Amino acid sequence: MNKRKKLSRLAGLIGGTLFVTTSLWATGAMAAGLSPDDCIKCHDKPPQDINSNGGAHKSKVSCVDCHAGHAPKKNGNIPVCSQCHEGNAHFKLQGCLNCHTNPHTPLVITIASNVTEPCLTCHTEQMAQLQQHKSKHSSVACSTCHREKHGLIPDCSHCHSPHVTGQTTKDCLTCHKPHMPLEISYPDSTPSTLCAACHSDVYKQITTNPAKHSKLACATCHQAKHKMIPKCQGCHGEHPHPAQMHAKFPQCSQCHGIAHNLNK
Length: 264
Description:
There is one protein chain. By secondary structure, the protein is mainly alpha-helical. It has helices spanning 3-13, 28-31, 36-42, 45-53, 56-59, 63-66, 117-120, 124-132, 142-145, 169-175, 192-196, 200-208, 218-221, 233-236, 243-248, 253-256, and strands spanning 110-111, 148-149, 257-258, 261-262. The protein has 3 domains: 3-84, no CATH class; 117-175, no CATH class; 192-262, no CATH class. It has 16 helices and 4 strands. The strands form 2 sheets. It has a two-stranded antiparallel sheet with strand order 1-2. It starts with a helix and ends with a strand.
């Protein structure tokens, strides 16, 4: 079988996407008389791994680009990652195989426990949020939440009890940003039952009061940001009563009590 047919057979065996160029023939492997076609005669699993999850290792390099010459296992023929990967802070990290456990499936990333520093070489914005907006999330390792698998978005319920039965992580993220969870903002459509989980006394007061406020959602008055206290004038105007009454009672609460339990 000539060399062209051998390479064609190799491409068919591992998905047809190994990148083989004439430059490969100048490598140590080729000089020793080896080709990618020879590799698959003995090594079944690496080509299978590359074909299924090889990423750029599948499309831009071949076996002999990394393994430049065959050698007994006791001597080793494992290249250093920096042979190809360079140019940013992440590639300067040591112990690549701690997360990229299989170099033939480099994007299948397994994260160990108590890992933070490697994450910061890419995820600087998230760390800035954690540092600028202190919360309990600021004191735990990235892998506490993003555990075992890179890119995992955990369910909030793994650590936190839901406000209401049936609440999902998607519901949580409507109000809470995970890297600054105490900076709470919400849309106007936020149901008052979510607020009631923490503010049960207030919720009971307003829903049992006969005044018009009982018909409004919490977010109607407490707009956009948690702990925002609205002014009555925002809805009722600067002078809803005669000037003499405002002069005598300058504070709305002097007559109307509190907004959640209005006097008629």
